[in-house]
Amino acid sequence: MLKPGDVAPDFNVRDHTGRVHRLADYHGKNVVLWFYPKADTPG
What we know:
By secondary structure, the protein is mainly beta. The chain has no helices and 2 strands.
């Protein structure tokens, strides 16, 4: 579990278009991750 002030580990994530983003590609920039379910998922 990360604590406030910890450095986030590098990771890869795929966006809604299928493009892969690496956290390291945004070094020195503010990053916001926004997770939401697809419109066609139940719940």
